[in-house]
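Tip: read the tokens left to right.
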């Protein structure tokens, strides 16, 4: 069938119609475009949840070994819900920090993957093949979609503004989507507290171009509110085109971040990061009591999870 360019028309009742004039002069009227769009959106939402479950299961494989190995590290960090009184003793000799963990809002790489899956496409994870949506060069250091921006703004209104103790520090992954999310969600604090980019809280990287960060000078130009001094190289020195970081490497980065955080004076901190990094932090590095297993679940886009981190060192 020859390509037919659709046009739209609005009825007196405000109903929108899609009109398509066929080459033979016939007219096709589609009054169900909104319904179709809503149905596809619902399908996308289902696909998003299905992909989250699949990726969570994949990344949790072998995580118990990582967790057991990290029990011998000199710094041990335990996590509890912020309403758990056991962590709120002001006389405790242990270092305690309230940490608001944030996964970035929807990025374009998330949207591309969801749409590809919803259309029935399949691809091998971490494979450099055209079918893999995470390999699109246009998605390098993928920014937020409009939905992702709205998720960050909603987080600001519904969660951040209601905090009884707002963050004294915001730590950001140097990826564009995390920088945007943190700056939008904590916008009211930009003139009052530090916003620091930290290489150790970035997403698991390698192969997928969406997880390669832009040079620091470009990020600093676009995000002047953020301090990039901790990043040691202008170019992305961690990303490798033919190798994906292992669980252990991501866990080591998460542990290095906790070592840095343990030396800070702030008692209320926000961290804007990514799904796999957060999953590794809460399942492979931080000790979460069995009764608080919900703290270890996969983070959805635009989600903030608040908990108390208790630091202690093995003698």
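Filled-in amino acids:
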């Amino acid at each position: 069938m020859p390509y037919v360019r659709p046009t739209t028309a609005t009825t007196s009742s405000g109903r929108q119609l899609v009109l398509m004039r066929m080459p033979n002069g016939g007219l096709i009227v589609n009054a169900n475009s909104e319904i179709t769009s809503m149905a596809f959106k619902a399908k996308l939402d289902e696909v998003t949840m299905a992909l989250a479950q699949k990726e969570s299961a994949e990344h949790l494989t072998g995580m118990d070994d990582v967790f057991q190995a990290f029990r011998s590290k000199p710094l041990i960090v335990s996590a509890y819900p912020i309403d758990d009184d056991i962590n709120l003793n002001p006389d405790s000799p242990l270092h305690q920090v309230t940490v608001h963990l944030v996964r970035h809002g929807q990025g374009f790489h998330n949207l591309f993957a969801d749409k590809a899956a919803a259309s029935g496409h399949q691809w091998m994870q971490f494979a450099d093949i055209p079918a893999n949506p995470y390999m699109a060069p246009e998605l390098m250091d993928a920014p937020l979609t409009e939905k992702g921006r709205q998720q960050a703004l909603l987080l600001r209104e519904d969660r951040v503004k209601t905090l009884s103790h707002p963050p004294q520090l915001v730590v950001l992954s140097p990826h564009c989507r995390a920088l945007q999310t943190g700056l939008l969600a904590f916008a009211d604090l930009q003139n009052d507290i530090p916003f620091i980019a930290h290489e150790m809280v970035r997403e698991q990287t390698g192969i997928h171009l969406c997880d390669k960060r832009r040079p620091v000078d470009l990020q600093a130009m676009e995000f002047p509110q953020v301090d990039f001094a901790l990043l040691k190289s202008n170019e992305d020195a961690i990303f490798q085109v033919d190798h994906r970081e292992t669980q252990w490497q991501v866990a080591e980065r998460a542990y290095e971040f906790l070592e840095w955080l343990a030396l800070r004076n702030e008692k209320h901190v926000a961290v804007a990061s990514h799904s796999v990094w957060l999953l590794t932090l809460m399942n492979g590095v931080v000790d979460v009591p069995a009764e608080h297993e919900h703290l270890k679940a996969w983070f959805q886009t635009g989600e903030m999870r608040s908990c108390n981190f208790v630091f202690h060192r093995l003698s």
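The first strand starts at residue 7 and ends at 10. Helices lie at 33-60, 63-70, 108-118, 146-158, 176-185, 216-222, 247-262, 275-285.
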